[in-house]
Amino acid sequence: MKRNIIFLLVCLSLLAGCKDLMVPEIENNRNLNSGNYPANDAALPFGILLNGYNRIPTNSWSFNDVATDDAVTNDQSNGFLKMANGQWTANNNPLSQWTNAYAAIQYLNIILRDVDTVHWVSDPVVSKLFAMRIKGEAAGLRALFYYHLLQAHAGMSESGAVLGVPIITEVQGSNTDFNKPRATFEACMKQIYSDLSTADQLLPLDYENIVNAALIPAKYGAVSLEQYNRAFGAAFRGFLTGRIAKAIRSKAALLAASPAFSTGNTTTWADAADYAGEVLSLKGGVSALASNGLTWYANAAEIAGLADGANPTEILWRNNYGDNRDLEQANYPPGLFGNGRINPTQNLVDAFPMANGMPIGSAGSGYDATNPYTGRDPRLRMFILVNGGTAGPNNTVINTAADGGTNDGLNIVGTSTRTGYYLRKLLRQDVNLNPNSTNNQRHYKPHIRYTEIFLNYAEAANEAWGPLGAGKYGISAYDVIKAIRKRAGVGTTNGDAYLEEAKGNKDQMRDLIRNERRIELCFEGFRFWDLRRWKVNLGETARGVSIKNNVPAVMNVETRQFQPFMAYGPIPYGEILKFGALEQNKGWR
């Protein structure tokens, strides 16, 4: 015992004499509040910018669809399932962006404060170009995070005002007053537009190497070809550009013009259409809709040939690609060694029209309820694995019937489908999960697809000018929807009679556009946000199909427990407790 005490005292003495082993000296800590960086070290400030990129929310792969009428999940621990079943509260919010977005904004505010003081490279001209670029990127990213904050947390106050979130454009330090009230939705939109304007002014349309100095934009002054390409060349593909800033503006304006947020803000449907139209005109208009855009996630040769940062025709902005099999492991049916997590609903299946373009409930559509998957929109079997459909590297036939005799059938084991359907979209069918011959394939996640922008335009243009109004970019909602349906192989045998009927009725065209958006963007994280911004019913019961003796019977699978006030998400409960100036959205506690 005595020996142990002596040993302990010796250790404490040694540690006391070597305090630098335990506590770093001040000069080893970089104080981000100081704004002072080593003269030849741009890595730290660039790392601060990258923190913003790393926090970008990715709609795809979140699968918040399971909180909507499009899907359920067999994973009973899923946060979105619990949310849909009545456990969505201000302190239990799987959709919250508060912590992530404000952390990103703090880092972006630091770089915006310090960008002009950093010695980016030795060439002073190129260093100035780098400063312009990084300032533009940071401003554009800040706008993107405010968009996500509005989408998740903007809402109606008790007095009926549409509120946004606190606007923070300065670096917050130890002496900052954090008790800030929420700005109006309109003020937040003005901040977003201002930041995106800054980004657009400072950034090139795209990062590409220029071969002719005459093509250098005048805003960068008298710089050489080498200097321009060093700051704005192809090496920076994947970072935020002027084109991306324009697309973010389209997304934000569509949110602002929508019924849930249009009261008290000045963004109109015409504005939203024009912002999307500018992006589409730069792309080449309706004729530039990517012919293979439906299968962007599975175009094997195209994906394999992607250079770093380069985009396929369908993609406006994406993250880095990686080789893995995570999606397939989660969502292949159990017969293909998957966990069958995301189960599309009968509700979504019914949204797919017939191949002739007619809704399945329309007279003369040709729909046969006893043979429900025949003669349908080709996108149905492309996106959803139905009974008798094929999947996996060997095109295995999957039997989802309740009496099918395999684990792929309805509710057989914990990884079986709960609806009679499995996810097919987003999955690479050339992934093999067989333990004896597993393989990975390349995947990437899009931040923005051009099809989204086309659909943004169609929705806004129809609301602003009706189905045939072309606006200043000469594109109508009808033009866009016709191109999208033609690409899908819908209505090609009868001149798409249903679309031709809808073009004479704004309300009918609205329903058609919303349905096309539902189909084209399914499982990419849009449905929940769309239902809320449209202020339509969140509580539709999720349905499935039980097939016995080859006879399909529609059944209820999961009721939704959403209240009307949940058209708007809550401010985090912890923030309300800490800061008295914050007002909660109406209905939340």
TrEMBL record:
<feature type="domain" description="RagB/SusD">
    <location>
        <begin position="319"/>
        <end position="588"/>
    </location>
</feature>
<dbReference type="InterPro" id="IPR011990">
    <property type="entry name" value="TPR-like_helical_dom_sf"/>
</dbReference>
<keyword id="KW-0998">Cell outer membrane</keyword>
<comment type="similarity">
    <text>Belongs to the SusD family.</text>
</comment>
<keyword id="KW-0732">Signal</keyword>
<dbReference type="GO" id="GO:0009279">
    <property type="term" value="C:cell outer membrane"/>
</dbReference>
<feature type="signal peptide">
    <location>
        <begin position="1"/>
        <end position="18"/>
    </location>
</feature>
<keyword id="KW-0472">Membrane</keyword>
<dbReference type="Pfam" id="PF07980">
    <property type="entry name" value="SusD_RagB"/>
</dbReference>
<dbReference type="InterPro" id="IPR012944">
    <property type="entry name" value="SusD_RagB_dom"/>
</dbReference>
<feature type="domain" description="SusD-like N-terminal">
    <location>
        <begin position="62"/>
        <end position="211"/>
    </location>
</feature>
<dbReference type="InterPro" id="IPR033985">
    <property type="entry name" value="SusD-like_N"/>
</dbReference>
<protein>
    <submittedName>
        <fullName>RagB/SusD family nutrient uptake outer membrane protein</fullName>
    </submittedName>
</protein>
<dbReference type="Pfam" id="PF14322">
    <property type="entry name" value="SusD-like_3"/>
</dbReference>
